[in-house]
Amino acid sequence: AGGIILGVALWLRHDSQTTNILYLQLGDKQAPNTFYVGIYILIAVGAVMMFVGFLGCYGAIQESQCLLGTFFTCLVILFACEVAAGIWGFVNKDQIAKDVKQFYDQAFQQALMADPESNNGKAVVKTFHETLDCCGPDNAIGTVVPLWRHDLCKDSIVKSTFETPNCHRKIDELFSGKLYLIGIAAIVVAVIMIFEMILSMVLCCGIRNSSVY
């Protein structure tokens, strides 16, 4: 279970879409990377779970109450971290996407300035458009100011006259989907941990009550 959680967390951490966006820099301002806080918690929990799993297995083989008690204590701490990560993700679910959309809007405004060479807003906006396959902050701007579309958007999107993909909507979909995976992983880990704590205590009590020859 620890290996699975660690693998999912590393995949989310190095996913091309999120890294392309969250590593962007607009002038001196870095793209908001609050999203990675939950990922780092999952990575830490997955790695520690792998170690704790070996600890519990060895303790069970040796029938050591000390090792099983340590195993149980570590599980309680990890479970508390999982609950904290879940609460953090639920509270910041909308704020993460909002911060990224504000960063995109600032870059978009700079990209429309008369002197685009003085800033890298155009490059940032193009990265958003190519990564998320979208064009513009909303459909209204696409109908009012059509001239910028050929300069900032992909040719396939510019040719689409009926429905222009909204970058705000794409950002919401990207982070809601990723946070949904984090939530599923946290729930799976929490359920496994509950069973592990129950079984470790049952085994520890069984060893204590058994006769020693």
Q: In the CATH classification, which architecture of one domain applies?
A: Orthogonal Bundle
CATH topology of one domain: Cd81 Antigen, Extracellular Domain, Chain: A
Q: What is the SS-derived class?
A: mainly alpha
How would you state the average pLDDT, rounded?
Answer: 78
Q: Summarize the biggest pleated sheet.
A: 2 strands, antiparallel
In percent terms, what proportion of residues is strand? under 5%
Overall radius of gyration = 24 Å
Number of discrete helical segments: 9
Q: What is the rounded distance between the termini?
A: 36 Å
Pfam families: Tetraspanin
GO biological process, one term: adaptive immune response
Organism: Baryphthengus martii
Protein name: Tetraspanin
Verbal overview:
The protein is an all-alpha fold. The chain has a domain at 64-211: Tetraspanin (Cd81 Antigen, Extracellular Domain, Chain: A, Orthogonal Bundle). The chain is built from 9 helices and 2 strands. It has helices spanning 2-13, 16-22, 35-62, 65-111, 121-132, 139-144, 149-152, 155-158, 167-209, and strands at residues 25-26, 29-30. Strand 1 and strand 2 (29-30) form a beta hairpin. Helix 1 packs antiparallel against helix 9 and helix 4 runs antiparallel to helix 9 (167-209). The radius of gyration is 24 Å and the shape is rod-shaped. The relative contact order is 0.15. The model has no long low-confidence stretch (mean pLDDT 78). Keywords: Adaptive immunity, Cell membrane, Disulfide bond, Immunity, Lipid-binding, Membrane, Transmembrane, Transmembrane helix. GO terms for molecular function: lipid binding.
